[in-house]
Design brief:
Strand content: 15-25%
Structural class: alpha+beta
Number of helices: 4
Helix content: 25-40%
CATH superfamily of the largest domain: SUI1-like domain
Shape: rod-shaped
Order of helices and strands: EEHHEEHEEHE
Largest sheet: 5 strands, mixed
Radius of gyration: 36 Å
């Protein structure tokens, strides 16, 4: 069966659209738009001004208002819970978890890199929420040597700079006190 879109002679006449649907549709379709949110009235319930839209419907589109409200009431009666839940924009919120209290401890060690060469390893700065990349850059500038982040909580500085590192760290980050920082002496360097 031809539709109004395919046959211009059928425009304005009621056309049956298929075997499964018993409802007839008249073409061209007229879609009522809400005067408040400017959306088709079926979509007003998804806007923030739904109550204002309902008031506008009562005055300007009373037949569609009763149809939509009755359909909504039927949907509510079919729900097992009886309450229609609306999801807020952004989905379900993540529950805030308490951060585990991590022991604030910074260690400084010296490791042999060969017969006479050493590197200084400082670990534990992330427990004090210090950015490791920025800290490595500062150490490299301060001690005129190479410095890099070598682990998830470890910075390696080329050279034996233990003597001045502890004072520099305490000067740069005052929250690192003598109780928090510890020099653990010589350490074996791990092979990767």
């Amino acid at each position: 069966m031809a539709t109004a879109a395919e046959d211009p002679e059928l425009e304005g006449e009621e056309v049956e659209s298929g075997e499964d649907e018993a409802a007839s549709v008249s073409y061209p379709l007229t879609v009522p738009y809400c005067g408040i949110c400017t959306l088709p009235i079926e979509y007003c319930e998804f806007t923030a001004d739904y109550e204002k839209c309902k008031e506008w419907w009562k005055v300007n589109e009373p037949d569609s208002y009763t149809r939509v409200i009755e359909q909504g009431a039927a949907d509510l009666s079919l729900d097992a819970g009886g309450k229609k839940g609306r999801q807020t924009r952004g989905g379900k919120a993540l529950k805030k978890t308490k951060k585990k209290e991590v022991e604030k401890r910074v260690t400084v060690a010296r490791a042999s890199r060969g017969k006479r060469k050493y590197v200084t390893i400082i670990a534990g700065l992330t427990s004090l929420e210090i950015d490791l990349k920025k800290a490595a850059k500062m150490f490299g500038s301060r001690f005129a040597s190479g410095s890099s982040v070598t682990g998830p909580d470890e910075i390696t500085i080329q050279g034996d700079v233990n003597y001045d590192l502890i004072d520099f760290v305490q000067e740069k980050w005052p929250e690192i006190t003598d109780d928090v920082i510890e020099d653990i002496g010589d350490q074996k360097i791990s092979k990767r």
